Amino acid sequence: MKRKSIRTSRGNVTLSFIPYGEIANLSSVSKIRRILDLCLENRILIIQGRLTPEEETSLIQSTMALVGRVKNFKGVEIAVISGSTRNESVMDRMKENLAKALVGDRGVITLIGPAAIVKEIKKDPKKIELLLK
Amino acid sequence: MVINLIKRFFGRAFSALFRAKKELSLGFYGPPNAGKTSLANRICKDWTGEEMGSVSRIPHETRSVQIREKVEIEYNSRKLTLKLIDTPGIATKIDYEDFLKYGLGKKESQKRAKEATQGVVEAIKWLDDVDIVIVVLDSTQNPYSQVNITIIGNLIARKIPVLIAGNKMDLRKSDIRRIQSAFPEYDVVGISAKSGKNMKEFYEMLFRLAKKAG
Questions:
Q1: Domains in chain B: how many in total?
Q2: Is residue B188 part of a domain?
Q3: Which of A52, A130, B134, B149 is most open to solvent, judged by the fewest CB atoms within 10 Å of its CB?
Q4: Range of the domain at B203
Q5: How far does Cα B138 stand from its chain's mean position?
Q6: Is residue B6 one of the residues assigned to a domain?
């Protein structure tokens, strides 16, 4: 699957879909650099898969290092949407964990957008809303 | 044989004694304005008579890590010695213009924003130096924010015992159940750091948390 960009009716907003294969094999540093480079281009990213907790904190640290140094960059908004439910049986969870170990966590979507464009990502167990400025 | 048994008995007794006296590093983590400093102040005031840091309605009031060592808590005939580490609120975005709304000047707001970004980086670095953590969440706010999930996910990955404190339970909009359903695998206690509501249960859970640190 290739990366796809969808330009919205708002002149300066671009949604970019990043398939799992495009960042799965990158090092943590390269992954974070790729994400931030795209955010600095004012793109909203829809990533197949998710970052590890350590990568998420590194992303926050790198983001904070850029705030105030890069003009008009105020940080990012992040949300992770998982398809799994809490009512799954132990067997289902084991199958899911095995699949994750073999082919990666593809059933999860990560949304990341520059805070200058994305006002808020509202999330609760039933829905997710991306509010633009 | 008997000598070995005696040696083992005294060895265990001494190690238990030293373990009990060990100072545990307790980190306060959470998003800005959740009440981390208010809770640290409440604990400090309860057991030392002094407060730790200043609090404000303006977000990012704590912009550098505040430490208070050797805080001794004696509760229900149990003792705990803590090093309290109050960290700046973790955020994924900081906009100086948000501070203007609170009446701060442009320069002051920009300075506050710069210090706040450095504070977030410092708070994350301190994750390497805490034994147990209280994640303080504002119980009037939506708990499903990625910052909350990232903080808790990191603590779990590092095998650091966590207690979630749903603060501001004295407010009408407070919803502790929503926090419990967002994080069903973790201990959650509702408190009001400001009024001291439910602090007895909090201290009970704090001792249980300390026990998990071994």
A1: 1
A2: yes
A3: A52
A4: 22-212
A5: 13
A6: no
